[in-house]
């Protein structure tokens, strides 16, 4: 099975081709350009380097967030277009779960992505038998303080949320293991690995129904609500 996977939930766009659990190629770029201007070119360049086409893929996989609202739309919409146009099965994967699966150590793993305003998108996982990740909590948007308080002793944190809040986490919980930045970037190969396993277990997602996991209202919606005196209760503490 050949899987094309990509994710644009963060500032860095990433794509990969994986065949039966083996990475064939991967590309990532952090650009001032919009992901809509870079992602398709990245995918085409990667496939050309492998002498492959979209039609050669058996599965399309995309990260569904949470993360950048604009980035999520780009990735999920492109995945749906490719799936429907080429009649290729599609699987969406939590970007946080893919990030957690990149951690090489830790009994508890907490991926954190910057949600701004002293908040992070996060979830909690623990290692089960054979090193398999087991989800402890659903994807959420929480304050840095709440994440630190809930973490188990010695929990591993990774992701771009540490670029903004590393010092805050370290001050709140000196026992936490904070991964360095290069090890906390989302990599599309891990989205592919999870998607292949999920496809074999549960089959594909509906390409018409798959949606990004925004978790909270967009900035425009929050401004609209403030203007009209409405509260925003979309996120947890």
Automatic annotation (TrEMBL):
CDD domains: ASKHA_NBD_TsaB. Residues 34-145 form the Gcp-like domain. GO terms for cellular component: cytosol. Pfam families: TsaD. Residues 203-237 are annotated as: Disordered. It comes from the Bacteria. PANTHER family: TRNA N6-ADENOSINE THREONYLCARBAMOYLTRANSFERASE, TRNA THREONYLCARBAMOYLADENOSINE BIOSYNTHESIS PROTEIN TSAB. This is UGMP family protein. It comes from Aedoeadaptatus ivorii.
């Amino acid at each position: 099975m050949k899987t094309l996977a990509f994710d644009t939930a963060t500032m860095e766009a990433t794509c990969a081709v994986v065949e039966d659990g083996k990475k064939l190629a991967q590309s990532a770029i952090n650009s001032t350009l919009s992901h809509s201007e870079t992602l398709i070119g990245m995918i085409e360049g990667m496939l050309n380097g492998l002498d492959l086409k979209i039609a050669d893929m058996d599965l399309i996989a995309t990260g569904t967030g949470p993360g950048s609202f604009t980035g999520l739309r780009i990735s999920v919409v492109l995945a749906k277009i490719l799936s429907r146009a080429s009649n290729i099965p599609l699987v969406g994967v939590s970007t946080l779960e893919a990030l957690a699966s990149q951690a090489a150590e830790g009994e508890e793993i907490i991926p954190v992505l910057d949600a701004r305003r002293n908040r992070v998108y996060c979830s909690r996982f623990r290692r089960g038998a054979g090193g398999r990740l087991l989800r402890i909590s659903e994807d959420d948007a929480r304050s840095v303080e709440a994440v630190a308080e809930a973490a188990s002793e010695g929990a591993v944190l990774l992701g771009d949320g540490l670029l903004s809040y590393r010092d805050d986490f370290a001050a709140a919980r000196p026992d936490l293991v904070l991964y360095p930045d290069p090890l906390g970037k989302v990599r599309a190969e891990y989205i592919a690995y999870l998607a292949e396993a999920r496809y074999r277990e549960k089959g594909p997602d509906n390409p018409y129904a798959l949606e990004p996991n925004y978790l909270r209202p967009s900035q425009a919606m929050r401004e609209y609500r403030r203007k009209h005196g409405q509260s925003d209760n979309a996120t947890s503490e």
